[in-house]
Amino acid sequence: MKFSTLMTASLLALAAGPAVAQDKTINIAGFGASSGVVGIFGQNSGAAMAAAVEKINAEGGVTLADGSQASLVTTYYDDRCNAEEGISVLRRIASTDALVAVGPTCSNVAEPLFGILQAKVDDAGDTGLQFPVFTDVAIKGGLAGISEWVFRNTPSESTMYDSLFAWIRETHPDAKTIYGGVEEDFAHSRFTWYEVMRKAAENHGFEVVGEAQWLLNDTNFSNQARGMRRAEPDVVAISAHPFTTCGMLREMARQRVEPKVLVGLTSSSSLETLTGCANEAEGIIIPTSFAPVNEGAQSAAAAVVANGGQLDLHSAAAWENIMILKDVIEAAGIEGTDASREEDRRKIRDGLAALTEAPGLLGMNKRMPDGEAVKPYVFVDAENGKWEVLHNPGS
Amino acid sequence: MDFYLGLLQIIGVHTLLGLSAYVVLLTGQVSMAQAGFYAIGAYVAAMCTAMFGLHILPAIIVAGLVTAAIACVVGFPALRVKGLMLVVATLAFGEMVRLFFFNFSWQVERGGELIGPNSAEGFRAIRFFPENGWEIWHVTGFIWIVVAVVMGALWWIDNTRAGAVLRAVGHDETAAQSIGLNLTAVKVGAMTLGGLVAGMGGGIYAHTVTHIEHAVFGVLLATFAIAYPILGGLGSVFGTLIAVIFIQGFLVEGLRFLGDWRSLLFGALIVLAMNFRPTGLLGERMPRLFKRRGPDKLELKEAE
Lengths: 395, 304
Description:
The structure holds two protein chains of two kinds.
Chain A: E1 24-32, H1 39-58, E2 62-63, E3 69-78, H2 83-94, E4 100-102, H3 107-115, E5 133-135, E6 150-152, H4 157-171, E7 177-183, H5 187-203, E8 207-214, H6 222-231, E9 235-239, H7 242-254, E10 261-264, H8 271-277, E11 285-288, H9 295-306, H10 313-332, H11 341-354, E12 357-359, E13 364-367, E14 373-374, E15 378-383, E16 386-391
Parallel strand pairs in A: 1-3, 1-4, 4-5, 5-6, 7-8, 7-9, 9-10
Antiparallel strand pairs in A: 2-3, 11-15, 12-13, 13-14, 15-16
Helix pairs in contact in A: 1-9, 1-10, 2-3, 4-5, 7-8, 10-11
Chain B: H1 2-26, H2 34-51, H3 56-78, H4 83-103, E1 108-110, E2 113-115, H5 128-131, H6 136-158, H7 161-171, H8 173-178, H9 183-209, H10 219-232, H11 237-254, H12 260-276
Antiparallel strand pairs in B: 1-2
Helix pairs in contact in B: 1-6, 1-9, 1-10, 1-11, 2-3, 2-4, 2-9, 3-9, 10-11
């Protein structure tokens, strides 16, 4: 286990520039799936959090209410993408000195996890856990509404795919039909196909001529690819994570399924897809809220690589969350003592709730009143084993 | 403290799941249907509280009874097959239940929101405990009262003629039949009792996690259910409890820091435990401490 998230990235006195000796620490916990099939997401998030904490501490840490400086520390907990374990992990985090948690990875963990939190702040009749959670990865839409203690920095897939299919309609006027492939047993991929991709495609005049389903642990996709070949669609949209996306793409290549346009799931715009099937993924188009398109994004990506991870749209959110939390901690007047812990957690919650926008790696992220975010995005495609920016709708 | 109380909740509901498999295992039957029963209990209890405003106590009783009735119906055809065929049949039943809930959608409006099972999206907002002012220690206490009642009842059954009958069928079906025991009735009875316990456990589980979906109740959960009594031993109900504490408390929670290695060690420790204690951690016989004493003790004896 090389996973560096067992790290307690307590980078004390990496004194550079104006940094002063820091005795105080502010604990921001991370949690998610860092083992199992989707473990790479948690590993990348952990590395991104550690890198962001390292950067902040190197620049002097955070300023507390009394004007003193404190360094940030972070510990990453593994929930194995299991709801029961996720709840247990959050309870464990809440019993430590952590003031806020960043996570989880999986939407099927997020949903029950948010359910155990107090639904409405200051509702004396609701004994739910009162602890702020700032989600980086779990991307299924609409979950922040479950509790007012939940905030999300995940991109709006409905906005991104609506824009993507509008762009495909414009750039491929001859494309009329679409075939969907969905990883059926994963909350995010299932939701994204049925509630986001399919609706966006239909809204922009594409006729859905078929759907193929498979499971996260499947390794054989021949029947699904055969159905696709028979339908001869102009566009194929694959709503699946990198592991089965690659399996499906390899089978499509073997059966010579060659659509005019290939669309992928946001979570597949990662290094894992290129590592697993760069040749077969050539040309796949994916909307993403992260690409190393500016200096800040490039430097963040390098810092995360140095911490043993990769920066993609999910782990970029973890990096951004730490940066946003630094600003919130400084603006909210956090005291950082044992006695003020409950009050500090509440201040962070209120600080996050008050945000209307926050700086991100690609530009300003809009914070919605329901706790969700709308983030800048670009369309990338796989070209020669690399993700290249194909189109920037914001430009 | 909340963390440890939460862990106790997990151990409690998993103990109920394990005990549901324990009852069936006593008759020598390996049932993989317990996850399915657990799912039925979870959805029924959740519907009772979240959709129809029932209190948790009647809700889990209703869930247990509904699940027991279904287990009884399932028991008749399923228990006519033996060994591996029974494993396959009960596994198929569990998958059938899971897929049923995968497609099952029935929502009612409560407080301006649609509440209820929503097919693949699952069943959200099962928030009886927090909405009714139950603190975490109330919930933990409630769960362990239920666990204690169920364990006490099963322990009592184990020490009566009924328990001897269950074990007789489990040890040697032919011998049991030759002394006039109705095998089908015994096996279906055990399956029904197992369904009752699993249904209650599932009902409580749904309320501790507030959101349930079909994927939770898959083969892995069925495997855990059967692993608890096998690892703990069939000597008494306490074996299942010990195994749940070992797996959930030590392997899952205690070794969390090991990340990917945890799963590997998890398997290795179970293999080791089964090698050193092939009849389970507490063995096949009830520990002397828990045995009922006195002249009315019932034992199977060789026929004269």
